[in-house]
Amino acid sequence: MKTRKKIRTAGLAMIAFLFITNTLMAQGADSARTFHRGHEGLRSHMERGMMGIPNLTDDQKAKIKAQQIAFGKEALPLQNQLEEKRAHLRTLQTAQAYDANAVNVTIDDIAKTESQLMKNHAANREAIRKLLNDEQRLAFDSNKGFRHGSVRFHNRHRQGHRN
């Protein structure tokens, strides 16, 4: 009886050990691939240069960075207003008494703010383009990641339309 219990306990322990080991091995392999992929992406990004633009001079880098900072200071209040207006819209849409007029006015306000942000973004992009030579401009224009704005802005923009 005791021997049978010991064998059963040892068998269950072995099965649990194999299950845990198998799970950990699968996770480890996936993590290792992700780790290596991340370093490859970092290396290729470094080779391409700032924003995917090759052969930038130090002066160009400084001017682009200054332009990005100026745009960020200009865009942040608009992005914050946009988030507030979207939150207000959600509040209006989920209120007990639906006010179609207030919803429509808020949607129009959101559209105005989005329009202003897009115009500012286009102006920022053009200001950066003016700093580049033909080869750099071609690389900049073909960089799809920057064409429609930063990833952070783009993700925030899409979040508001998930409702």
What is the N-to-C succession of helices and strands?
HHHHHH
Number of domains: 2
Query: CATH topology of the largest domain, which one?
Result: Four Helix Bundle (Hemerythrin (Met), subunit A)
Give me the count of strands.
0
- Helix/strand structural class: mainly alpha
Helical fraction: over 70%
Number of helical stretches of at least 4 residues: 6
Major sheet size, sense and barrel closure: none
- Which CATH class of the largest domain is shown? Mainly Alpha
- Residue runs with pLDDT of under 50 for 5 or more positions: 42-47, 147-154
- In one word, what is the shape? flat
Q: How big a fraction of the residues is strand?
A: under 5%
Terminal CA distance reads 63 Å
Mean pLDDT: 79
Q: Nearest-angstrom radius of gyration?
A: 27 Å
CATH architecture of the largest domain: Up-down Bundle
Task: Write up this protein.
- The protein has two domains: 1-48; 56-159, Four Helix Bundle (Hemerythrin (Met), subunit A) (Up-down Bundle), CATH 1.20.120.1490.
- The protein is mainly α.
- The protein has helices at 2-48, 58-93, 100-129, 134-142, 144-147, 151-159.
Fold blueprint:
Blueprint: H1 2-48, H2 58-93, H3 100-129, H4 134-142, H5 144-147, H6 151-159
Helix pairs in contact: 2-3
